[in-house]
Amino acid sequence: MQSHHDLSRFNTLGLPCVAERFAAPTSVEALQELLWMAGKQEWPLTVLGEGSNLILPEWLKGLVVRPILDEWRLEESKGRVLVHAGAGVNWHTLVMELARRGLWGIENLALIPGSCGAAPIQNIGAYGVELCETLEAVHLLHVEDGREAVLPSRACAFGYRDSVFKRELDGRVVITRLVMRLSRISRPRLDYGDLATHVDAHPTALQVAEAVCTIRRAKLPDPALLGNAGSFFKNPLVSLEAAERLLRDYPQLPHFPQPDGRVKLAAGWLIDRCGLKGWRQGHFGVHERQALVLVHFGGGSAAELLAFAESVAGQVAERFGVDLEREPRLAG
Ligand SMILES: Cc1cc2nc3c(=O)[nH]c(=O)nc-3n(C[C@H](O)[C@H](O)[C@H](O)COP(=O)(O)OP(=O)(O)OC[C@H]3O[C@@H](n4cnc5c(N)ncnc54)[C@H](O)[C@@H]3O)c2cc1C
């Protein structure tokens, strides 16, 4: 365990942060021991993956744990393929490796930064696919007593960028392993955006994953070059009446009817229409190509970022009457 550990390089926004204590356990037993110690000493606990969906404060009190459980394996029998992936496995590396082996199911989720352990937290999704569609179960430890448990996917209350881990279990568990069910049967999902135009009529899983990478690289800023946490706001879900009212005034507004009757609107379009693409204030700005992404030019703090984001959301609310909800999570 290290004290006063610098986390500036452990978050893709590149915010300055020092953790009071930091540990990177490499086994479930070591993680259990840390949970027990944190409980006994009453240290507030923060779980860190690769920091690509987190807003870190300058000082993070208590203990930060970054599980380095980086083993994965395939279990295959009678046409059933299960992937067991430790929480510390890099998500994108796993997606590419599985696509290379001809396994279908998560190829559309290529190039999403972060660890496997964090993937269920907001039910990662992209290009018309969400993690919950292939997830079988989540192995976890209860923070309170280190107890191991396995949560089947149906108990995870998955929704759009949402799960039980952001609600009832928020701060109460550490995910140690995912189990996903993939398929050897070709199942390309190409109906989202312009993905179909980037591949042949009968692509392999690897070709789909590579096409997704190409499109994403052209659209999104690379956090290694410009600090960001991907989409800063969720696409808002509004009632059918509210959507119809907006569509009368703005017929070009991208909108997606949902099974529950609500309508999902494109937050990036709303921000763009407020004239905010490329808008900069101090150390933060709205990305010049993708209005949904807020970027950090260096030298700023979490408090400044939150004030900047509030100002963006405020302008959208004033013009369209739609509230934007933040996607990255606040630590500490
Ligand atoms: C350029 C860019 C593009 C992105 N594109 C997408 C996208 O297309 N779709 C999408 O859904 N997301 C996207 N994201 C967001 C991000 O990649 C995902 O949310 C990812 O799952 C976060 O993983 P992480 O390991 O970095 O988690 P972190 O940021 O470290 O943590 C995120 C949350 O998960 C918790 N957590 C982490 N590990 C564990 C664990 N083992 N057990 C319990 N809790 C844990 C943390 O406490 C925190 O609350 C993007 C981010 C960036 C920077």
TrEMBL record:
This enzyme catalyses: UDP-N-acetyl-alpha-D-muramate + NADP(+) = UDP-N-acetyl-3-O-(1-carboxyvinyl)-alpha-D-glucosamine + NADPH + H(+)
Q: Where is the signal peptide?
A: none
What keywords appear on the UniProt entry?
Cell cycle, Cell division, Cell shape, Cell wall biogenesis/degradation, Cytoplasm, FAD, Flavoprotein, NADP, Oxidoreductase, Peptidoglycan synthesis
Q: In which pathway does it act?
A: Cell wall biogenesis; peptidoglycan biosynthesis
Instruction: Name the coenzymes or cofactors required.
Output: FAD
**Protein localization:** Cytoplasm
Sorted alphabetically, which Gene3D superfamilies does this protein's record hold?
3.30.465.10, UDP-N-acetylenolpyruvoylglucosamine reductase, C-terminal domain, Uridine Diphospho-n-acetylenolpyruvylglucosamine Reductase, domain 2
What does the record give as the active site? 161, 231 (proton donor), 327
One GO biological-process annotation of the entry reads: cell wall organization
One term of GO molecular function: FAD binding
* EC number assigned by the record: 1.3.1.98
Task: One GO cellular component term, please give it.
Answer: cytosol
Q: Which SUPFAM superfamilies match?
A: FAD-binding/transporter-associated domain-like (SSF56176), Uridine diphospho-N-Acetylenolpyruvylglucosamine reductase, MurB, C-terminal domain (SSF56194)
The record's top EC class is oxidoreductase
Enumerate the InterPro entries for this protein.
FAD-bd_PCMH, FAD-bd_PCMH-like_sf, FAD-bd_PCMH_sub1, FAD-bd_PCMH_sub2, MurB, MurB_C, MurB_C_sf, Oxid_FAD_bind_N
- Judging by the UniProt lineage, the source's domain of life is Bacteria
In this protein, which residues make up the domain named FAD-binding PCMH-type? 15-185
| Record-linked PROSITE patterns | FAD_PCMH
- Outline what the protein does: Cell wall formation.
Family indicated by similarity: Belongs to the MurB family.
The name on file for this protein is UDP-N-acetylenolpyruvoylglucosamine reductase
What's the source species' lineage?
Bacteria, Pseudomonadati, Pseudomonadota, Gammaproteobacteria, Oceanospirillales
Q: Which gene encodes it?
A: murB
